[in-house]
Structure to design on (344 residues):
């Protein structure tokens, strides 16, 4: 794909400063810019590169003030970071797009496809599946019976969606994602054995949800496991049965969420966080990486850290004490020794 600076500025609702007809055909980091590429400056620590980069066009914030001559064409926008993210998405879609339904796909006769749906090789689509318009299903995907997928969905190779699950509009599922596998439900019986509890519910992903590679979301025992609108889950996350994650919450890799936990909206959860089941986490909560959550968090906007997690300010003070623990112990022993001598 090839665009002029003027075309890009029009798309981003920005203004050109320099040559509006200069052309770019790829994207680059500002410190690794090459002729014919488009880059951006949003982080002030990279400002020096705007004077030396070889990138042909640079997207900058509208309030950027140069302290030296800039020889490259600039596009000024309200928010350079979000504007560049929009461009990245556009370039990504142009490279990953596919069209048509493969003759090597297995599609049940009762499945319904919207307009401009793409289905890749060796994908299996079960009975009564509904897939909305402009959705792209890559090769080697399994979609079970009675699944509903909305418009503009993007399902990458190797995704598995079990029966009865519902995927909203503009959702993205990366390779290895499993939606709707059985929840971890077993009842202890005699002789230290376990009886499996049938998992009869489903999983619902609302609109604009993105799920990272090899993340698994268990179906509910009864009812639904629900991932609300705008949630972003990283790779290698486990979401237990009957859990609910609120709107626009983001969760980093290797986090485990146990069954029936309710997480509020606009939360930010770091990597390798463990969350026990049957608790509630309030809205706007931030949880630091590696934390263990063993009780409900009821305060809106709380910031938690540690295992078990406590308020982040207290956790930081405790960490300072922990780093000095050896010295503190030596001082205590020294004081004890002095006290013992004084009583002899």
């Amino acid at each position: 794909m090839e665009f002029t600076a003027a075309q890009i500025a029009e798309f981003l609702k920005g203004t050109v400063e320099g040559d509006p007809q200069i052309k770019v055909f790829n994207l680059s980091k500002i410190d690794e810019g090459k002729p014919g590429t488009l880059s951006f400056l949003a982080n002030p620590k990279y400002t020096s590169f705007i004077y030396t980069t070889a990138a042909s066009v640079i997207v900058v914030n509208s309030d950027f003030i140069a302290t030296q001559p800039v020889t490259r064409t600039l596009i000024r926008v309200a928010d350079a970071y979000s504007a560049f993210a929009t461009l990245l998405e556009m370039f990504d879609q142009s490279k990953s797009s596919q069209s048509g339904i493969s003759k090597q796909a297995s599609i049940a006769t009762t499945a319904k496809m919207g307009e401009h749906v793409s289905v890749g090789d060796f994908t299996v689509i079960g009975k009564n599946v509904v897939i909305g318009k402009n959705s792209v299903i890559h090769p080697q995907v399994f979609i079970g019976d009675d699944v509903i997928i909305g418009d503009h969905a993007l399902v990458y190779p190797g995704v598995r969606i079990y029966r009865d699950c519902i995927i909203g509009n503009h959702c993205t599922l990366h390779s290895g994602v499993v939606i709707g596998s059985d929840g971890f439900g077993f009842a202890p019986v005699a002789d230290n054995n376990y009886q499996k509890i049938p998992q009869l519910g489903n999983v619902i992903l609302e609109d604009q949800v993105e799920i990272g590679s090899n993340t698994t979301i268990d179906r509910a025992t009864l009812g639904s496991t629900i991932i609300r609108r705008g949630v972003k889950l990283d790779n290698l996350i486990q979401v237990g049965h009957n859990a609910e994650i609120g709107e626009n919450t983001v969760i980093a890799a290797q986090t485990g969420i146990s069954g029936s936990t309710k997480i509020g909206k606009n939360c930010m959860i770091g990597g390798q966080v463990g969350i026990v089941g049957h608790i509630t986490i309030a809205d706007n909560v931030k949880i630091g990486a590696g934390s263990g959550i063993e009780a409900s968090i009821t305060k809106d906007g709380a910031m938690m850290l540690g295992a078990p997690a406590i308020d982040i300010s207290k956790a930081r003070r405790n960490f300072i004490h922990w780093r000095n623990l050896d010295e503190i112990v030596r001082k205590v022993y020294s004081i004890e020794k002095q006290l013992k001598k004084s009583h002899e």
Observations:
- Helices lie at 5-12, 80-96, 312-323, 325-342.
- The chain has a mean pLDDT of 94.
- The chain is about 15% helix and 30% strand.
